[in-house]
Amino acid sequence: MSVKVKIPSLLNKYANGQELLEVEGYSLIECTRNLVIQLPGLKRWLYDKQGELRPQVWFFINGERIYDDEFTKSLNDGDELFFLLASGGG
Amino acid sequence: MIKCHGIGVVDMFTEDELVRYERQIIIPGWGEQGQEKLKKAKVVVAGAGGLGSAILNYLAVAGVGSIRVIDGDTVELSNLNRQILHSEKDIGRKKVDSARDKLQSLNPHIEIEAIGEVITEDNVFEMVGDYLIVDALDNLPARYLLNRVAVQRELTLFHGAVYGFEGRATTIIPGKTPCIKCLYKDVLPGKIPVVGVIPAVIGCIQATEVIKYVVGIGELLINRLLIYDGLGQKFTEARLKQDPHCEECRLPRSFTIGDER
Ligand SMILES: [Zn+2]
User: Is the pTM of this model over 0.90?
Assistant: First the structure.
């Protein structure tokens, strides 16, 4: 099963300029794992040193923000995964 | 003050003010009533930096009657690529002082209150009072403090944040939307890159929200995150929801009768 992943423009350079790519996986956790295998440059932005997803990353499925306890929920074929990095500039 | 034919909102405004605000008063749904609401509005803007520069300039010229500015910093040369409230002659001054001077010269008909202190757990409730809250801060700990006041007093909070060429904004109504603590678990560490135009765009979006909220027109960014990507030159929108485990806005406040003091 595959999910469309949208890369934020901030991280575009780690995705060889691709904005949208297909990633295999049944849940968000699986998709992000496969995403960083495809694009290793994204790994340090998504995962901390312990290998956990960073709390600074906001995930959206089909345009809606989802929180930790939904990360293992099963996704549907063709769902769109989008993420942003939380930053506090003013 | 001009007095004309007894009652009416016109009493609130001088002839100069009516001329000053004429172009916005003619907006459908605004009118002199809308302008009166703005004049009576009390807004606290936390942060007189990049976001604050845009927000404060536009709230002042729109005629928000009482504006309170909070910022503990002084103006530095490295602020001037983005913080257009301040000029080179202001370097070394308190940001709130230079902000007050600039805003008062833009619009002498409004009240500007300058609080040149850092927000702390001890002073935040008093600083905010019952004002509408605009979050123009540059750090998460102070945002959490503002958020606490917003949630506990059910005050609307207009949030914005920037990083590099990107920015976001949303409007937080406690109980109806996620709060800052729902949304932010942590932020990227280190010095934040910023080009002035980005806080200008995001700050103007926040100011637009404040104005619409007060006047009572249009659609607000309720449960909506507006994301501006300046490099791709695109706006996108995402839907937000409360974190069911949020420790600020979702856990029941655990007071029992015995706890009350
Ligand atoms: Zn919350």
Answer: yes
